[in-house]
Design goal:
mainly alpha; 2 helices; membrane
């Protein structure tokens, strides 16, 4: 029978499995987001290179200005997306650390409850044995 002292109960396998499942889902989502962003960045860089080739081939000043403006805008968008990804990764790390800390706290509380209950029953049984099963002369001082 699991101790229920102070409302603490034994950790169920279902709860640990659900926490593990959430952790795996978070990791998979982060990996998918990172892969999508990397693909988008590569495509944007290819477009920029193609635009630069057009500039070199055509040598038209208007095209050069458009390509430079587009390149700067694309670079700023890519930087903004990367900043958002870093922030999301930090949030995921914090969530994972909080979940790990919660599991550690639950395990420590369960261990402390088991140790306290075990020591209580040990000393109580020792006292019971000493009082009721030793001769009365040994109790006198």
């Amino acid at each position: 029978m699991a101790p229920t002292w102070l409302g603490c109960k034994q950790i169920s396998k279902d709860k640990l499995c659900s926490q593990l499942y959430r952790f795996v889902v978070v990791v998979v989502v982060v990996v998918v987001v990172v892969v999508v962003v990397v693909v988008v960045v590569v495509v944007v860089e290819i477009v920029v290179v193609v635009l630069l080739v057009v500039v070199v081939v055509s040598k038209v000043i208007i095209v050069v200005i458009v390509v430079v403006v587009v390149s700067v805008v694309v670079a700023l968008v890519v930087i903004a997306v990367e900043v958002v990804i870093v922030i999301l990764l930090l949030v995921v790390v914090v969530v994972v650390l909080v979940e790990v800390a919660a599991v550690v706290v639950v395990v420590v509380v369960v261990v402390v409850v088991v140790v306290v209950q075990t020591n209580y029953y040990y000393w109580y049984s020792y006292y019971f044995f000493f009082v009721f099963f030793t001769p009365k002369e040994t109790h006198r001082t």
